[in-house]
Design brief:
With 178 residues, the protein is mostly helical. Helix content is 67%, strand content 0%. The longest helix has 21 residues, at 103-123.
């Protein structure tokens, strides 16, 4: 499996936009933190980080084929594991038909949309993630015009998939991103 630097290089080959690069790194950080909290061995922590980093690899260049271009052509050609490829496939079940089943798949689904949403919340605050409260994230979740492209149902479903209360999931990610 490619190492972190090789994965970052691959990410930078396919994604140029600062916002999507930032999102990819946030999801990688969230996945790494959860894998560590769950007591995964180092090689598994690396897989989780990598799945988070590369989950939107083809979004910018191949939006209509996302994530199928990455899971069928790009990632296999670079020797990424079946676990990583399946996790990326399952993060977009409406496009791939694969629902999140394994632990890595469920956590990637849970971290993706919520990380993006929380980033949007952080941009509205002078201190970003520093001092962010669960209550303020929940308030923004109820404001449907705020970050309206983020599917609220997927955020709720993600927390359910990892057997966490949404507030606990938000709180954990605040601690990761602060």
């Amino acid at each position: 499996m490619p190492n972190r630097n090789e994965s970052i290089d691959l990410l930078n080959q396919y994604i140029k936009g600062e916002s999507l690069l930032h999102h990819s790194k946030m999801v990688a950080k969230a996945m790494e933190a959860y894998a560590t909290e769950l007591g995964k061995e180092a090689s598994v922590v690396e897989e989780w980080w990598t799945a988070g980093l590369l989950h939107d690899l083809d979004w910018e260049k191949f939006p209509d084929e996302h994530p199928n271009k990455a899971i069928k052509d790009i990632l296999p050609a670079h020797n990424y594991s079946k676990e990583i490829i399946d996790a990326i496939k399952a993060h977009a079940p409406e496009r791939t038909g694969k629902v999140p089943e394994t632990e890595i798949e469920r956590y990637l689904f849970a971290c993706d949309e919520l990380s993006g949403f929380m980033h949007a919340v952080s941009l509205m605050r002078p201190t970003g993630f520093e001092g962010m409260k669960v209550k303020s994230v929940n308030k923004k979740l109820k404001t449907l015009k705020f970050a309206e492209s983020v599917p609220r149902g997927d955020i709720k479903k993600g927390a359910e998939l990892i057997n966490k209360e949404l507030n606990d999931h938000i709180s954990f990610l605040i601690s990761v991103f602060s």
